[in-house]
Specification:
Length: 159
Protein backbone atom coordinates (compact mmCIF):
# COMPACT_ATOMS: atom_id res chain seq x y z
CA UNK A 1 0.00 0.00 0.00
CA UNK A 2 0.96 3.62 -0.35
CA UNK A 3 2.01 6.35 2.07
CA UNK A 4 -0.10 9.43 2.73
CA UNK A 5 0.61 12.87 4.11
CA UNK A 6 -2.01 14.64 6.22
CA UNK A 7 -1.13 18.28 6.90
CA UNK A 8 -2.88 20.45 9.45
CA UNK A 9 -2.29 22.94 12.23
CA UNK A 10 -4.00 20.73 14.85
CA UNK A 11 -4.68 23.64 17.22
CA UNK A 12 -5.82 21.42 18.98
CA UNK A 13 -5.96 17.90 17.54
CA UNK A 14 -9.70 17.07 17.63
CA UNK A 15 -12.05 14.19 16.86
CA UNK A 16 -12.40 15.30 13.24
CA UNK A 17 -8.63 15.03 12.79
CA UNK A 18 -8.66 11.60 14.42
CA UNK A 19 -11.41 10.42 12.09
CA UNK A 20 -9.48 11.75 9.10
CA UNK A 21 -6.44 9.73 10.20
CA UNK A 22 -8.58 6.59 10.50
CA UNK A 23 -10.12 7.09 7.06
CA UNK A 24 -6.76 7.79 5.42
CA UNK A 25 -5.29 4.65 6.98
CA UNK A 26 -8.04 2.56 5.38
CA UNK A 27 -6.39 3.39 2.03
CA UNK A 28 -2.71 3.75 2.96
CA UNK A 29 -0.21 1.71 4.95
CA UNK A 30 1.47 4.72 6.59
CA UNK A 31 0.43 8.27 7.33
CA UNK A 32 2.77 11.17 7.84
CA UNK A 33 1.04 13.70 10.05
CA UNK A 34 2.50 17.06 9.11
CA UNK A 35 2.16 19.74 11.76
CA UNK A 36 2.08 23.13 10.05
CA UNK A 37 1.31 26.65 11.16
CA UNK A 38 4.21 27.27 13.46
CA UNK A 39 3.70 30.96 14.20
CA UNK A 40 1.04 33.58 14.79
CA UNK A 41 -1.83 34.29 17.16
CA UNK A 42 -3.95 31.41 15.86
CA UNK A 43 -1.28 28.94 16.91
CA UNK A 44 -1.27 28.94 20.73
CA UNK A 45 0.15 25.42 21.06
CA UNK A 46 3.75 24.62 20.19
CA UNK A 47 4.77 21.98 17.69
CA UNK A 48 5.91 19.80 20.59
CA UNK A 49 2.57 20.16 22.37
CA UNK A 50 0.62 19.32 19.23
CA UNK A 51 2.86 16.33 18.59
CA UNK A 52 2.17 15.16 22.15
CA UNK A 53 -1.60 15.56 21.61
CA UNK A 54 -1.37 13.47 18.47
CA UNK A 55 0.81 10.79 20.09
CA UNK A 56 -1.58 10.53 23.05
CA UNK A 57 -4.59 10.18 20.76
CA UNK A 58 -2.86 7.59 18.55
CA UNK A 59 -1.77 5.54 21.58
CA UNK A 60 -5.31 5.53 22.99
CA UNK A 61 -6.65 4.37 19.61
CA UNK A 62 -3.83 1.81 19.19
CA UNK A 63 -2.76 3.41 15.90
CA UNK A 64 0.90 2.72 15.21
CA UNK A 65 1.46 3.26 11.49
CA UNK A 66 2.08 7.00 11.59
CA UNK A 67 4.99 9.42 11.76
CA UNK A 68 4.79 13.02 12.91
CA UNK A 69 6.72 15.69 11.07
CA UNK A 70 6.95 19.41 11.79
CA UNK A 71 6.72 21.65 8.75
CA UNK A 72 7.91 25.15 9.61
CA UNK A 73 6.47 28.30 8.12
CA UNK A 74 9.02 29.67 5.69
CA UNK A 75 7.02 32.35 3.90
CA UNK A 76 8.43 30.97 0.67
CA UNK A 77 6.88 28.25 -1.49
CA UNK A 78 10.19 26.85 -2.74
CA UNK A 79 11.77 26.69 0.73
CA UNK A 80 8.64 25.06 2.17
CA UNK A 81 8.53 22.48 -0.62
CA UNK A 82 12.24 21.76 -0.12
CA UNK A 83 11.75 21.24 3.63
CA UNK A 84 8.71 19.00 3.11
CA UNK A 85 10.54 16.95 0.52
CA UNK A 86 13.47 16.44 2.89
CA UNK A 87 11.15 15.36 5.72
CA UNK A 88 9.05 12.84 3.78
CA UNK A 89 10.05 12.41 0.14
CA UNK A 90 8.24 9.11 -0.26
CA UNK A 91 4.56 10.01 0.25
CA UNK A 92 2.17 9.22 -2.60
CA UNK A 93 -0.76 11.49 -1.87
CA UNK A 94 -1.37 14.46 0.42
CA UNK A 95 -4.59 15.34 2.22
CA UNK A 96 -5.20 18.97 3.06
CA UNK A 97 -7.94 21.54 3.17
CA UNK A 98 -5.57 24.44 2.61
CA UNK A 99 -5.32 25.83 -0.95
CA UNK A 100 -1.78 27.16 -0.56
CA UNK A 101 -0.57 23.83 0.82
CA UNK A 102 -2.32 21.95 -1.98
CA UNK A 103 -0.69 24.22 -4.57
CA UNK A 104 2.78 23.66 -3.14
CA UNK A 105 2.32 19.90 -3.08
CA UNK A 106 1.11 19.92 -6.67
CA UNK A 107 4.29 21.81 -7.59
CA UNK A 108 6.17 18.82 -6.15
CA UNK A 109 4.38 16.63 -8.68
CA UNK A 110 2.42 14.85 -5.95
CA UNK A 111 -1.27 14.00 -5.88
CA UNK A 112 -3.50 16.04 -3.55
CA UNK A 113 -6.91 15.16 -2.15
CA UNK A 114 -9.09 17.76 -0.47
CA UNK A 115 -9.54 16.80 3.15
CA UNK A 116 -13.09 16.17 4.22
CA UNK A 117 -14.14 18.00 7.39
CA UNK A 118 -15.44 15.34 9.77
CA UNK A 119 -18.19 16.12 12.28
CA UNK A 120 -18.14 19.79 11.22
CA UNK A 121 -15.37 20.49 13.71
CA UNK A 122 -13.11 23.54 13.56
CA UNK A 123 -10.17 23.99 15.93
CA UNK A 124 -10.90 27.73 16.09
CA UNK A 125 -14.31 27.03 17.62
CA UNK A 126 -12.83 24.51 20.02
CA UNK A 127 -10.20 27.01 21.19
CA UNK A 128 -13.01 29.51 21.79
CA UNK A 129 -14.91 26.94 23.86
CA UNK A 130 -11.76 26.12 25.85
CA UNK A 131 -11.19 29.82 26.51
CA UNK A 132 -14.80 30.23 27.68
CA UNK A 133 -14.75 26.87 29.54
CA UNK A 134 -17.83 25.74 27.59
CA UNK A 135 -18.06 21.94 27.29
CA UNK A 136 -15.11 21.63 24.90
CA UNK A 137 -13.94 18.18 26.02
CA UNK A 138 -16.50 16.35 23.87
CA UNK A 139 -14.85 17.67 20.67
CA UNK A 140 -11.39 16.25 21.30
CA UNK A 141 -10.21 12.71 22.02
CA UNK A 142 -10.14 11.98 25.77
CA UNK A 143 -6.34 11.69 25.73
CA UNK A 144 -6.12 15.17 24.18
CA UNK A 145 -8.55 16.67 26.71
CA UNK A 146 -6.45 15.24 29.52
CA UNK A 147 -3.30 16.72 28.01
CA UNK A 148 -4.89 20.14 27.41
CA UNK A 149 -5.93 20.26 31.05
CA UNK A 150 -2.43 19.23 32.12
CA UNK A 151 -0.84 22.11 30.18
CA UNK A 152 -3.53 24.52 31.42
CA UNK A 153 -4.75 25.40 27.93
CA UNK A 154 -7.69 27.42 29.25
CA UNK A 155 -5.40 29.76 31.17
CA UNK A 156 -3.06 30.12 28.20
CA UNK A 157 -5.90 31.02 25.86
CA UNK A 158 -7.05 33.73 28.28
CA UNK A 159 -3.62 35.41 28.33
Amino acid sequence: MSKALFIGRFQPFHKGHLEAVKQILKQHSLIYIGIGGTSGLNNPFTIEERAEMIKNAMKAEKIKNYKIIAIHDTGNDIAWIKELNSLCPDFDVAYTGNKWTAGCIKKMGKKVKKMKRYFGLHATGIRKKIKENKNWEKYVPKAVAKYLKKIKAEKRLLD
